[in-house]
Amino acid sequence: MSRSYLHRHIGTNDADQTAMAEAIGVGADRRRALERVMDAAVPAVIRPGGAFAPGALPETGASEAEALAELRALAARNRVLSPMIGLGYSDTITPPVIQRGVLENPSWYTAYTPYQPEISQGRLEALLNFQTMVGDLTGLPVANASMLDEATAAVEGMLVARRASKSTSNVFLVDADALPQTKAVLAVRAEALGIVLHETPYDPSAPAAPDAFGALIQYPGASGRIWDPRDAIAAVQARGGLAVVAADLVALTLIASPGSLGADIVVGSTQRFGVPLGFGGPHAGCLAVRAGLERQLPGRLVGVSVDAEGALAYRLALQTREQHIRREKATSNICTAQVLLAVMASMYAVYHGPEGLFRIASEINAKANSLWARIEATGAQVVHRSFFDTLTVRVPGAAGDVIAEAHERGVQLHLVDADTVSLSVGEATTRDDLASVAAAFHAVATATRPAFVGEFRSIPEALQRQDAFLTHPVFHAHRSETAMMRYLRALADKDYALDRGMIPLGSCTMKLNAAAAMTAISWPEFGRIHPLAPSEDVAGYLALIAELETWLAELTGYDAVSLQPNAGSQGELAGLLAIREWHRSRGELRRDVCLIPSSAHGTNAASAVLAGMRVVVVATAEGGDVDLEDLRAKITEHADSLAALMITYPSTHGVYEADVKDITAAVHSAGGQVYIDGANLNALVGHSRFGDLGGDVSHLNLHKTFAIPHGGGGPGVGPVAAKAHLAPFLPTAERPVSAAPHGSAGILPITWAYIRMMGRAGLTDATSAAVLAANYVAARLRDHYPVLYTGERGLVAHECILDLRPLREETGITVDDVAKRLIDYGFHAPTMSFPVPGTLMVEPTESEDLGELDRFVEAMIAIHDEARRVGAGEWPADDNPLVNAPHTAACAVATQWPHPYSRELAVYPAGNSAGKYWPPVRRVDQAYGDRHLVCACPPIEAFADAGSVAG
């Protein structure tokens, strides 16, 4: 048993669990405490009674060493060749200080989304650096804090253009030379929204394009072509449309910025900024806009504000741009980012600076020029004379032979057609790689090694970059590894992550992200694989993906799984698109109504809108369940047009609804399909399955239930699982919802390792331990904060909602005050005001030990007592430890202490602690930041009062 990973993952032991079960009133018998609590909490009607197929999952878990050995065997089946396929992906070099200091550092990868800005200043600063980097390189003033990938960023750019355009056209022009995966994702998304795509060659000899609300221009093109798009941009804008430019950010260090050419919107990927290929992801996409479009931006935007003492502080700006909050009025369902990867990309720019980026780009261009000369000397035709890194070469009838010979020499090229080869040079391309490619074209070896810089210039003078970039001091201050290491440490020290303590966020499942499971993602056999590599080179990846799909299908009770969606929101969209296409395949074109309970996750309604459906809201009953009477009425009202019902199980209110099978049966009887949101799957694994409850399709959050880290707000993976009849409509490479065929495959080894180390028995115990922990917290706190919703026997699922509204009525202390005061006690706050305003939703997860659970409970009880002292008049309503929280070290040692409570109570409310977390700022003024919108690194003068020179 000592070798089992299970006891490393679950924080409570048998004795703890027995004591916890007694505390929640589950009587003792001969069974284990975990079995007793699940029998009490989970309705018998949803228990499978032996429905799990034998052998589909490993019954018991492997040790860490055994799982890593199996992963090594899978990795060995991947061939690490030199990837020169291009098409938006390039082999890059991750500086070791960034690999170890960010990617492999739990202070960065175990943090949550920076919704609590006071304990997220490090991540927010890193993201502001990212926004500044993207804005500078694109030549546009405002960039957001990253997108999921380039293809979905292009979709969001198209939707921004549609909203902002004055044109009445429903046509969107797409560059014929755009990346193929971008065109494919645009086609899927446009079709659901009634947008007509018109492919345009952008060639002077081509016929005039029709009127359009916008246009996508690839710059440089997928073929490598560099051309001047000024006239094309102006032509679109003259007819009321907006120009979206998809750009290569590394190329933009040498070629004119799209903003200087007149672009309204720029999209792209920052993968080349030190982020491993990872078979397609995760990578941070980017999106920047011209002035006037700031409030149209989807996703997250970091801005600059001030704290309670007027000091500069960062926070998420214009938070209503989290479009899912608008539910059925949403224009985007994006509710996450690729924070960990955006941090890596921003630090790559910080470490190299503008001079380093220019040097890297120049070397890339020089390598491409060297190949151009050697290939053309053979008589082959390089199609475009102006290029940055990519050559398209005509070799009539011999393209397959060139590809095969290059492959034999260890280099992967791209086969365009029987007569055409494409190849792309990257930062990691070596002289040996160039020699191998030249030899594949039968170029004569040169007597001298070609220079890397200055041999040729393939960039037209009129398109060479003139405007400066990365001028802020942060991009000039950290050149040595020592300086970079300390900068990363200084930022991490400002933040609160799981390496400091519990993050009890309801609906977010902030469980342990095992170091053993994280290990493999840094191996080159997983990291240096191009997403379009030949299948014979990725046998290990394909085996891992197939096995993981089988395991997830078994755990959910579905027949097929697609791992392609790279966020939960994209998994939702994929599932709804599958339902839409299934109805259409049956000729039921009128079915477009999606029923969604009022308590649902906001992304549900937003995803339905983007899938071309009409949202109809179903009421929630007083106990928190779906109102069955209202549901039946809505089904009757929309019987002929009902497409789907979306529900979350257990409910968004943290309760197992006993009548879930009645709900799903009612929808099926009316011809609809049932989408079960998988956000709360951590309360079901091993005990029940969506497919057995009547679900037809679900997305799963691998960054929640299956232990992929949240990474400070991304990456995520949101696979979609479905019954057999919907399986043909799940995402594929031909009908994608994300850029890469297998989505963010580079982090799938984490979930594979988690399931392999836990086994079926361990996964079942993890669910039970999570439910026990939530009920223990609820039982200990219910006398201080009412538990808003419970099941039939007074128990909750894996999370509980604490009602703080009575406390506010009695004392004036708000949910915000409690959340900020928890920082002084050394905790990240639970989820605030979701799904019910004025509440806290607590999810402790199975990974926390009893000591940490008790520490949280005692902090919450102490805060309740502090609030009562405010209500009793002991402290003024406007000057007490709660409304002034959090307290920084600076305010604690200030010469003057004007407050009616002691400094010690302010900063050490639970007693002196050697591990005290000190927030770097006081409470942040959210409204000020929105009124004075600054979304790039502020000038150095802004830090004068604070004495900081950080970016």
TrEMBL record:
The glycine cleavage system is composed of four proteins: P, T, L and H. The modification N6-(pyridoxal phosphate)lysine is found at K704. The gene is gcvP. HAMAP family: GcvP. Belongs to the GcvP family. Its EC number is 1.4.4.2. GO terms for cellular component: cytosol; glycine cleavage complex. GO terms for molecular function: glycine binding; glycine dehydrogenase (decarboxylating) activity; pyridoxal phosphate binding. This is Glycine dehydrogenase (decarboxylating). GO terms for biological process: glycine decarboxylation via glycine cleavage system. It comes from Microbacterium stercoris. It catalyses: N(6)-[(R)-lipoyl]-L-lysyl-[glycine-cleavage complex H protein] + glycine + H(+) = N(6)-[(R)-S(8)-aminomethyldihydrolipoyl]-L-lysyl-[glycine-cleavage complex H protein] + CO2.
